[in-house]
Amino acid sequence: MPRRTPHPILGWSAFPKAIFPAYPSPTGVRVLDVEQHRDWYLSQVQAPVGGAVLDLGCGKGADLLALAARIDDPRASFVGIDASPDHVREAQVATTDSRVSFGHSKVGSTLDFDDGVFDVLMTQEVLECFPDLDAFVPELARVLRPEGQIVASHYDWDTQAFTGSDRDRTRRVLRAWAEWEQSWMDHTDPWMGRRLWGYLQGSGLFEGEVRVRVMTNTEFSEPWHGYRMAHWFRGLVKRGMVSEADYEGFMSDLEEASAAGRYFWSVNRYVYVGRRVAADGQRGRP
Ligand SMILES: C[S@@+](CC[C@H](N)C(=O)[O-])C[C@H]1O[C@@H](n2cnc3c(N)ncnc32)[C@H](O)[C@@H]1O
Questions:
Q1: How far is the CA of 81 from the centre of ligand 1 (A)?
Q2: What are the Cα distances from residue 281, in Å, to 179, 206, 274, 275, 276?
Q3: Tens digits of pLDDT across the chain (286 residues)
Q4: Which of 75, 116, 131, 165 is most open to solvent, judged by the fewest CB atoms within 10 Å of its CB?
């Protein structure tokens, strides 16, 4: 079977749905483009034989379980920690793989691990929750062995784009979403994607590069992420962050664009892929 690669400009949405395989998900949640992004994110991870991987803010464990399924190494170990006890419980029951463990931990300014115990630290959509990331980044470096790998991914919500006839209204809705500090967050930053480079490379503790993937949708329907996002925005109305009229107008716009074959959604996701600077000060490779 020929290898599929995303269209260089349009991403995965340029391909008809029929050619996608059924994407299995360890948690049962199937949002195709999110799962395609996960594949890409996990493909950045380079775990050595017998390596130990930490997933900081692992949620329900989908990333860690998908990674473990790819790595056929009996000596490897995979540790996920998350502040949500419910998420951790779901993650724990989703696997029987003895190499994988999940723990409940609300991380403050420190990580409860010894120095240099991990070969890989991965984290996706979590770093914005730390109010003082400059102070926390040295903790990420501390738990990694010298030249251990960091793979840190984040949306940049201010790059989210929907088609719409009323630009001001569309901006109001998207800005409200971007700035929404949800109940489980101690902090939010809709620019975290573009700031990964500054926080991680700028710390002098890592040497790496930023890779960017643009998620795009051209269909306003399940199972695409833009469609789900638009429906989640209703939560903004409930919280008084967007008026009912704005939300209804925004949704009508999207329905009309869809009926006319003009619907488009995109958002940028940034991944910093780097290595902890070696103890002797030498720089590693991404
Ligand atoms: C948007 S979810 C991302 C989950 C997962 N990494 C993914 O990409 O599917 C953010 C997760 O970070 C966790 N989280 C937020 N702040 C945290 C903290 N201080 N310590 C540990 N986990 C935290 C939340 O409980 C939530 O599961």
A1: 9
A2: 38, 10, 15, 12, 10
A3: 233 333 333 333 333 332 233 333 334 445 678 888 999 999 999 999 999 999 999 999 999 999 999 999 999 999 999 999 999 999 999 999 999 999 999 999 999 999 999 999 999 999 999 999 999 999 999 999 999 999 999 999 999 999 989 999 999 999 999 999 888 898 999 999 999 999 999 999 999 999 999 999 999 998 889 999 999 999 999 999 999 999 999 999 999 999 999 999 999 999 999 999 976 555 545 5
A4: 75
How close is the Cα of 242 to the center of ligand 1, in Å? 25
Q: How far apart are CA 248 and CA 233, in angstroms?
A: 11
Pairwise CA distance, residues 164 & 173, whole Å: 11
Position 16: which residue type?
Answer: P
- Cα 259 to ligand 1 centroid, rounded to whole Å: 36
| Domains of the chain by start residue, with CATH | 26-276 (3.40.50.150)
- Report whether residue 62 contacts ligand 1, using a CB cutoff of 6 Å: yes
Q: Taking the model in full, what pTM does it have?
A: 0.88
Residue 273 amino acid letter:
V
**Nearest-angstrom CA–CA distance, 64 and 250:** 36
Closest CA to 121 of 27, 46, 189: 46
**Residue 184: CB within 6 Å of ligand 1?**
yes
CA–CA dist 28, 92 (Å, integer): 14
Cβ 207 under 6 angstroms from ligand 1: no
Assess whether the C-beta atom of 54 lies below 6 angstroms from ligand 1. no
Q: How many Å apart are CA 161 and CA 267, to the nearest integer?
A: 6
Q: Whose CA is nearest to atom 4 of ligand 1?
A: 59
